[in-house]
């Protein structure tokens, strides 16, 4: 019996819908992100003082993979109009960038305000406004003035006041032009990588101790900045303010293993819950499993007190609820293989306190050892955030992929496409309130200890050319189409040529069904 044209049409429609044709919801916004130290350069001119990354990359260049530094970076201090042109070309709704504390306040404190620093950010904000690009501005993206580090940095409780003062000045100077603020970018990286280890500047490496002193200060500083904004500035400036928490999402390597499932939950509480639980739960304070584990380990080490000091009732209350949205930076998923001390854990340390063994043996590769491509992990993280934190409104404030700097960056496009598709899945299938997406990053830039060896940009930057020319990669064209159409681009030019792409498979499926039915 001949297959009716109706059946063929139905099959076509089914195939079509299986390739994720859903649009992002009304009001969903797209942007790209950068950070001051990674792009600005001009490290020692126009009144800017030294920050902890200047200090590390100059005094210990062997700590940076390719021996580079942020002295010039993308030269955005001088070429910010090129940045704005790129943003305009991409058609983004917003641009996430950070303010350099050492450029605005060279001593870190309010004693000296650098007029050139204020002027620079006003010029950038004005250029964005002229092009209808909303600023999303991070107060602290890792580049602490060295003068404050010399006083102990985030291990010094006085930082609560210095940060509040700095935030106050920024709200006052820029607040009429900025409607969306982020206090801290990735507190985990600051506290664990920079104070509990030496993976980030200032490389304090006070493992198991400094990391928890830092989180105590940082969460209080965040809360103070939030309350200042909420009470003094919001009534007149009408903006919103949040924190961006980063995640490596942990999953059990064997989903059937109850032990691994339980340990993955512990690891997620240590990683994400460390900073999210005090702010986004109704109980507040650190996750109880974290409190228990560190207390138990500390006792076993013969210490009189836990290395993780709990917040008192005042601070639990003061920190709770201090974020208008949950900002999530997400890149990757790692696995938990069992209980015990991770072979790479220092003693004592945050990692040892978890009590689980982790592995990166999962998903596809990138140029960064830690960055494994596991799109489904993103969906699992988002569903977990919905259920753990009472269904918060979420902004993805970073997501991206590293390679070595190719213009035909199919790997990056596939990463964006697959991760964005998971966002669509959780929005439509699970009702997770994801409101916006930020790609990391506008252009190749100084990737911290990886220097320029790992590249995350939508634009290629030639860092040996003094003019720092930027060239759109294929992923820039992909992102431009995404911003314009609000759905995942389907143009075959964005995808590595492959015969067995989904559309081809669908076509052959229809042919076979037709042939059989003949
Ligand atoms: C600024 O740093 C550069 C190196 O990046 C150096 O050559 C220059 O002399 C410094 N300028 C000042 C004013 O210190
Ligand atoms: C923010 O301010 C509003 C209005 O005064 C108040 O109702 C709310 O509780 C404040 N938020 C927090 C977390 O304190
Ligand atoms: C980068 O710039 C340098 C200096 O202008 C030039 O020699 C080199 O060919 C450029 N590299 C690329 C990939 O464009």
UniProtKB/TrEMBL annotation:
Identify the stretch annotated as signal peptide in this record: 1-20
Enzyme kind, highest EC tier: hydrolase
Coiled coil feature spans? none
Q: Which domain of life is it from?
A: Eukaryota
Keyword Signal included in the entry's annotation: yes
| Keywords attached to this entry | Glycoprotein, Glycosidase, Hydrolase, Signal
Q: What is its EC number?
A: 3.2.1.21
**Pfam families annotated for this entry?**
Glyco_hydro_1
According to its UniProt entry, the protein's GO biological process terms are:
carbohydrate metabolic process
Tagged with keyword Hydrolase: yes
List the active site: 398
In terms of InterPro entries, this protein maps to: GH, GH_1_N_CS, Glyco_hydro_1, Glyco_hydro_1_AS
Q: Name one GO molecular function term.
A: beta-glucosidase activity
Q: Which PANTHER family match?
A: GLYCOSYL HYDROLASE, LP05116P
Indicate the quaternary assembly.
Answer: Homodimer.
- Family stated for the protein in its record: Belongs to the glycosyl hydrolase 1 family.
Q: What is this protein called?
A: beta-glucosidase
Quote the gene name from the UniProt entry: HaOG206597
């Amino acid at each position: 019996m001949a297959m009716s044209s109706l059946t063929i049409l139905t099959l076509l429609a089914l195939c079509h819908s299986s390739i994720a044709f859903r649009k992002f919801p009304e009001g969903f916004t797209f942007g790209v992100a950068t950070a001051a130290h990674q792009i600005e350069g001009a490290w020692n001119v126009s009144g800017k003082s030294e920050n902890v990354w200047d200090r590390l990359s100059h005094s210990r260049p062997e700590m940076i993979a390719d021996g580079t530094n942020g002295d010039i970076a993308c030269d955005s201090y001088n070429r910010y109009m090129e940045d704005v042109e790129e943003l305009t070309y991409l058609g983004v709704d917003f641009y996430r960038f950070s303010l350099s504390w050492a450029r605005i306040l060279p001593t870190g404190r309010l004693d000296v305000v650098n007029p050139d620093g204020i002027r620079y950010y006003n010029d950038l904000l004005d250029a964005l406004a002229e092009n209808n690009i909303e600023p999303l501005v991070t107060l602290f993206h890792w580049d602490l003035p060295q003068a404050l580090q010399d006083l102990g940095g985030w291990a010094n409780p006085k930082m609560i006041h210095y940060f509040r003062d700095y935030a106050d000045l920024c709200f006052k100077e820029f607040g009429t032009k900025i409607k969306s603020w982020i206090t801290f970018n990735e507190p985990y990286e600051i506290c664990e990588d920079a104070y509990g280890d030496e993976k980030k500047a200032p490389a304090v490496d006070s493992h198991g101790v400094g990391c928890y002193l830092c989180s105590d200060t940082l969460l209080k500083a965040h809360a103070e900045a939030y309350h200042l904004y909420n009470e003094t500035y919001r009534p007149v400036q009408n903006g919103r303010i949040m924190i961006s928490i980063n995640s490596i999402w942990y999953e059990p390597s064997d989903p059937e293993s109850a032990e691994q499932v339980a340990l993955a939950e512990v690891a997620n509480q240590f990683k994400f819950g460390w900073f999210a639980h005090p702010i986004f739960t109704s109980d507040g304070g650190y996750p109880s499993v974290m409190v228990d584990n560190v207390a138990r380990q500390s006792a076993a080490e013969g210490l009189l007190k836990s290395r993780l000091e709990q917040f008192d009732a005042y601070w639990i209350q003061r920190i709770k609820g201090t974020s208008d949205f949950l900002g999530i930076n997400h890149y990757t998923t790692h696995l938990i293989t069992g209980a015990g001390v991770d072979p790479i854990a220092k003693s004592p340390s945050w990692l040892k306190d978890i009590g689980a063994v982790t592995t990166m043996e999962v998903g596809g590769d990138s140029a960064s050892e830690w960055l494994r491509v596991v799109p489904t992990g993103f969906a699992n993280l988002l569903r977990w955030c919905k259920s753990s934190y009472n269904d918060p409104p979420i902004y993805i404030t970073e997501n991206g992929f590293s390679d070595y700097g190719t213009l035909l960056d199919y790997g990056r496009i596939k990463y964006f496409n697959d991760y964005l598709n998971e966002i669509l899945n959780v929005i439509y299938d699970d009702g997770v309130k994801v409101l916006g997406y930020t790609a990391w990053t506008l252009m190749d830039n100084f990737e911290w200890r990886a220097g320029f060896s790992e590249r995350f940009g939508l634009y290629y930057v030639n860092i040996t050319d003094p003019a720092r020319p930027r060239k759109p990669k294929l992923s820039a064209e992909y992102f431009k189409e995404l911003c314009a159409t609000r759905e995942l681009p389907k143009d075959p030019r964005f995808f590595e040529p492959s015969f067995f792409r989904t559309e081809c498979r669908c076509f052959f499926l229809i042919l076979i069904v037709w042939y059989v039915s003949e």
